[in-house]
Amino acid sequence: MERSPASTESTPTVTPKRWASLNAYAITLLVVALISFIRITPKVWPWTWQSKVPVAFEVIRVRPLLRQLADPIHWDVGESLTGGGVIDNAMRWRLLAPTVGRMLHLTPLAYLFLPWGGWLLLLGVTVYFSRYQLKLTCFQTGCLGVLVGTSVAAWLSMWTIGTFYAWWCGLLIVTIFTDSPAIAIGCCLLGPWIDERFVFILPVALVVRHHLKGIHAAWPGCLAALAPYLLIRLAALLNGDPSIGYQLTMQSAAFYGRALLPGWWHGFRAGWLLIAVALVAVSKNASPTGRWVLWVMLAGYVIVISFLSWDATQNTAAFAPLLLVGAGCLGAGSRWTLPVLTALNLVLPLAYWSGDLRVPITSFLCR
Fold it and tell me: Which of 81-85, 125-129, 148-152, 321-325 has the weakest average pLDDT?
């Protein structure tokens, strides 16, 4: 019996053009990951969690991280908050990763590799949206991917054990660029449970999303998605949770203002030019209300996060999506701008700043 033309046409096929597109995406992502890894090579590996006294900056979170994996809710009761554990307190409400790790019964070693999944997610969504939404060439996409891959949003998850920054930065990029309001809302549900900085930067991200997506911004749903996190934090505070009070007391003891400028610079280095282009473009095209929200919330983020966290370089990670927005705003002008900025980022010195601590970040080629 012969197959009808209609049934033949309805059979799903993968066209050569689609295969070529997938291959180009995979190759671009591989090149971006390789160059980023070579430029910022991890100095430690996850099995250093076996050390009895992990005091180095790269592994200082390992012990509380594994306690949190064993019991995500009660891991720090009677120990860190009463014993002065600075690292432990910072992790108190970052519950998504340990909860998922507990549900999946991950071994400690597997769990310590989880941030690398966020690293791949961040690079993957950067390459995807650069190629298929911003319509950059493969070469331009690769350059932009390396700019993101050599920014603090990516390298912090490579360099320090148990740091999930790349996960929430990847979700932030998806929130801004996805065409699906449901996916954007889902990202907003998950993001705060990875890092509370997601809450502080989200209003800025939604103004940027409105700039890109117009009336389909879905900002009411995205803001409403923060409600579970905010209500649980409020209930915990009213019930005597000491984490906020402890953090304020700890931060008020010292303010490393002199470290802010160098710390922020090392977050993106040459990439700050694209971030500036993005902010100017969004502000110029926003409504008066949107422009007011953008700059007030942006200033609020900078002021609040600079006081609440000594990690000046870490605090800049929230601006990673603006690298993509800036490249999109340049359009044809990014033909040579992106390669030049990428080359600069590969040769400019890089360091991590936390308070007065400065830790150089290097490639294995320089060791």
Answer: 81-85
- Please state the three-class secondary structure of 267-330 as a single string: HHHHHHHHHHHHHHHHHHHCCHHHHHHHHHHHHHHHHHHHHHCCCHHHHHHHHCHHHHHHHHHH
More confident residue, 256 or 46: 256
CB proximity list for 186: less than 8 A, separation 6 or greater? 225
Cα separation, 87 vs 69, whole angstroms? 15
Q: What is the model's pLDDT at position 83? A: 46
Alpha carbon distance 155, 320 (integer Å): 12
Q: How far apart are alpha carbons 211 and 51 in whole angstroms?
A: 49
Q: What are the sequence ranges of the domains in the chain?
A: 41-109, 113-243+257-367
Task: Write the single-letter amino acid at 83.
Answer: G
Query: Which is nearest to 141 in space by CA: 32, 11, 247?
Result: 32
Burial of 119 from C-beta contacts in 10 A (0-12 / 13-18 / 19+): buried
Euclidean distance between CA atoms 125 and 209, whole angstroms: 16
Binning pLDDT at 50, 70 and 90, where does residue 170 land?
Answer: very high
Q: 252 CB contacts (<8 Å, ≥6 apart)?
A: none
Hey, what amino acid is at 343?
Answer: A
Tell me the CA distances in angstroms from 143 to 162, 270, 349, one per residue in order. Answer: 27, 12, 18
Instruction: Quote the tokens at residue 104.
Output: 């999946």
Alpha-carbon span 354 to 10, nearest angstrom: 58
Element holding 112 (H helix, E strand): helix 108-112
Encoded tokens for 287: 């409504």
Q: What are phi and psi of 352, to 5 degrees?
A: -105, 130
